[in-house]
Amino acid sequence: MRVILAEDSTLLREGLIRLLAEEGHEVLAAVGNATELLDEVSREQPDVVVTDIRMPPDHTDEGLRAALEIRRRWPDVGVLVLSQYVEKRYATELITDDGGRVGYLLKDRVMQVGEFLDALERVGSGGAAFDPEVVRRLLARTTHADPLATLTAREREVLAKMAEGHTNAGIAAELYVSQSAVEKHVNAIFDKLRLSHTSGYSRRVLAVLRYLGS
């Protein structure tokens, strides 16, 4: 894939450049701030952008705002956001983007090379990838929610995997069950959350949002 990196830590940026090159990806540009990121995306139209949330000059949400701008202006460009911490508002903003090609990983996950590359591939191929720890933190807010209380333990597991961005086939592999079993659980989730008559990808997004209590 053709990738643009945005990360103000020189050490991490150079490490990602080397890793992606070794995996056969083409790094079109590697920049240290959000302004340069938007300029490079406009110029190169990459397959995927990998960006930190906090970058110069204020180290607040510059990368996130750039990511949302990229999603608005270039919807065919995948965006994989990296963060040092679980920032709930930012994660929720990305999860609500029902166009796919989006992900949110904690930087610690980058050290798990296989998981990072899998997330990159999923985002680049039009899917979604959300860090399990991010999902766990978000789901911690939802134990009081109803009708979520009607979900079985397995249905909650399936919904958590949906929140991470896995397809039904991916969930089956993660939970070591058949795809038909996952499909039954997903349909049960839609029924219990009163989403049976909603069509398309938006139904999965709405289920996740209900689960996150948003």
Can you describe this structure?
InterPro entries: CheY-like_superfamily (IPR011006), NreC/VraR/RcsB-like_REC (IPR058245), Sig_transdc_resp-reg_C-effctor (IPR016032), Sig_transdc_resp-reg_receiver (IPR001789), Tscrpt_reg_LuxR_C (IPR000792), WalR-like (IPR039420). Keywords: DNA-binding, Phosphoprotein, Transcription, Transcription regulation. This is Response regulator transcription factor. By secondary structure, the chain is an alpha/beta fold. The chain is about 55% helix and about 15% strand. The chain has a six-stranded parallel beta sheet with strand order 2-1-3-4-5-6, sandwiched between helices. Strand 1, helix 1 and strand 2 (about 25-30) form a beta-alpha-beta unit. Helix 2 runs parallel beside helix 3 and helix 8 (about 155-165) crosses helix 11. The radius of gyration is 17 Å and the shape is elongated.
How would you summarize what this structure contains?
By secondary structure, this protein is an alpha/beta fold. 53% of the residues lie in helices and 14% in strands.
Distance between the termini: 34 Å
Largest sheet: 6 strands, parallel
Provide the succession of SSEs: EHEHEHEHEHHEHHHHH
Shape: elongated
**Overall residue-averaged pLDDT value:** 84
Please estimate the helix content: 40-55%
Helices and strands, with pairings:
Elements: E1 2-6, H1 10-22, E2 26-31, H2 34-44, E3 48-52, H3 62-73, E4 78-83, H4 88-95, E5 102-106, H5 107-110, H6 113-124, E6 128-130, H7 132-139, H8 153-164, H9 168-175, H10 179-192, H11 201-212
Parallel strand pairs: 1-2, 1-3, 3-4, 4-5, 5-6
Helix pairs in contact: 2-3, 7-8, 8-9, 8-10, 8-11, 9-10
